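Subject: Sanity check before I submit

Could someone independently write out the structure tokens for this chain? I want to compare against mine line by line before I put it in a report. The sequence has 397 residues.
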Amino acid sequence: MPYSSYLKSRIKILKNSMTNSTQNSPSFHLFIQANSPGEISAWVKPIAITAKQYNPNIFITLYLVPCQYATKKEADVAKTISEIDEIIPVNKSLLYLFSLKKLIKKSKNGAILYLGGDPFYSSRMSSKTGFPAFAYTEHQNFPTKAFTHVFFKHKDGDLMAANSQIQHFERNLIFQKYSLNPKKDYCLIFPGSRPEHFKAFFKLCLDTVTEIHKSKPYHFIFCISPYISDDLLNESQPDNNTPNITYLRGNSLELLHISTLMISLPGTNTAEAMYMHCPMYTLCPLNQPKLLILDGLLGLIVKLPLIGSLILFIALSILKKKTKFASLPNKLKNEKIVPEFIGIIKPKEQAHIVIKLLENKEKLLSIKERLKQMPISPTHQAIVKKILKSNLHQKND
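---
Independent answer below. Compare away.
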């Protein structure tokens, strides 16, 4: 073969290789900032899934930042979200943000999405990458100056609702998946996702169920969070197998779909139950006040020796008077849609309340119908559309 022909063939191969490389390379790089267990499961997941649906060629990086609520299992849980292509742990995130170390961008087009933590980190990441920064927050006084656009929960809708919209549920398949009896009614209990809360609340729930079983053989499912280790679960469980109690690590929404009643602490689970139209009973135990997480300066002051306990007692007294509701549906409607309890948990008293709830089918049906009337907006779609259409050098309204 003449050299000129050989050269032409090599150039052609090189061009095809470059074309294929361009086609396979991501068209958009989305950096998502998050830091707590609730944000990853309730906010990051629907955004990642929706982004991949809109643009299968997008590259998604989740970078974790410091958080007082962190369980050190955030990265492991994030790995279960297949739509996330890269996970940067806290130590490496800080290294990228505050050193000369360069962050590899998979595309010239991209954006930063704040879903939790200190907004400064997102601002810094925007400066490092040259990508515009967006944010979703439930705080109305969130600083907007450094962001191209900020989505507010009170104005744009609850991102947590997306999880119930992007999944399909079939009762029979769920019963089969978890080896449960479709002829039985199940009461679902979420004993907490933070280890210190789990230790305290799990025992209270178990003692309450034990009291219930003295008079009624109701069936209970304890849904164990992925943030709770097997060791902690094993040391918390009773030595003997308690009848009519099933311990599962499963999809919380699937289990809510088949449950008659859900019992949990205030927080993410009350939102999930609301969007799954599952009747709920919310408990806010004050048995161990030191386990309550208080934000800001107050959270630091109550940890001080000697005076900390006194300040905590005063603060809780004030908060209890000011806190009208604990569960999300009650907060949203500013009325008692679902039952809840704030105070010292006594298993015998709670057993009586739970039995009355489970026996009152009309009340449970009424709660379910009220929950169905709660508004749901496609916030996840609006956020993804806005980000993917963003102009890298121009602020959006």
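---
OP: Matches mine. For the report I'm noting this point. Confidence is low (pLDDT under 50) at residues 17-22, 391-397.
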